[in-house]
Amino acid sequence: MTALIKYPGSAVALRELQKQGHALIGATMRGVASPLEVAGRCRDEMRDTLRLVHNSNLHRANLPNAKLNHDRMLKRAVVVEAAHTALWSVAHPHMIATPVVTAQIAYTMLSVLLRSVGKVKNVETEALLASCIEMFDPVSDVVGKATGLWSSISKHPVILALAVRKLINTTAFTSAAELRSAMQEARNSILYLDADLQRWLELLRKCDRCVFAHDRLAWEAAYARVGADVARVMQDSDEEGYEDDDGEDVPPSPRWAALQAMIEARDEPSPG
């Protein structure tokens, strides 16, 4: 993976490479800015605004808090679910088909950390870049996992972009260990934000079940104000009908069936 590394031989070439690096990092960050903003708002809401529904059995005593939350949250279910999907893919790029850091991407992004172009520095910088880019080689993961000498890093471009931004703002870039640490911190931050989104969605679903069970008219009125896309997001797989081990059909929950009826009704073409 390091064969393409050729440290720029002039200040002009370095500045052009760094310009490309800044542009690539900026484009990468813009692609994830909206999910990050949504996650931050959900985190703040969970801490400051929303009312927790404590009883797992969705007792009627939870209804006042559940209705207040439901009214605030339901219309944003699709946006929050999309943010959760986006951040989950950043934290777990190996689980689904997502972009990964190539040697060229790593080289271009890391170029923004370079500061000098002296002859000795050229040699040192080439070695530093080579060791950093090597971290993205799948072989490095295999060896690290087998020996237990180092842990794998996320291969998602967003994680590298965040790590580079952190290093620019906090420290002089002098070792591959610093990059590895910054990338681990960046991934942890994404994981925390994604967990906030999951908790927000879990609270909404709990409130939705509570309102459905204890104030069906309010539940139906809330869904009259949103589209079929919200109803789809609110359908939980554990409430869907299925066939048991004996071949008997187990019907879906009443809430799932009601949501399905809404979806089918709203998906029908308009008359004429």
Short description:
With 272 residues, the chain is mostly helical. The protein contains eleven helices and two strands, in the order H-H-H-H-H-H-H-H-H-H-E-E-H.
Largest sheet: 2 strands, antiparallel
Uncertain stretches: 116-120
Number of helices: 11
- Helical amount: 55-70%
Topology:
Blueprint: H1 11-48, H2 63-73, H3 77-91, H4 103-110, H5 119-134, H6 138-147, H7 157-170, H8 176-214, H9 216-224, H10 228-234, E1 242-243, E2 249-250, H11 254-267
Antiparallel strand pairs: 1-2
Helix pairs in contact: 1-3, 1-4, 1-7, 1-8, 2-8, 3-8, 4-5, 4-7, 5-8, 7-8, 8-9, 10-11
Can you describe this structure?
- The protein has 272 residues and is mainly alpha-helical.
- Helix content is 67%, strand content 1%.
- It has eleven helices and two strands.
- A two-stranded antiparallel sheet has the order 1-2.
- A hairpin with a 5-residue loop joins β1 (242-243) and β2.
- The radius of gyration is 25 Å and the shape is elongated.
- The protein starts with 10 loop residues before the first helix and ends in a 5-residue tail after the last helix.
- Residues 116-120 have low confidence and may be disordered.
Keywords:
272 residues; mainly alpha; two-stranded antiparallel ribbon; 11 helices; 67% helix
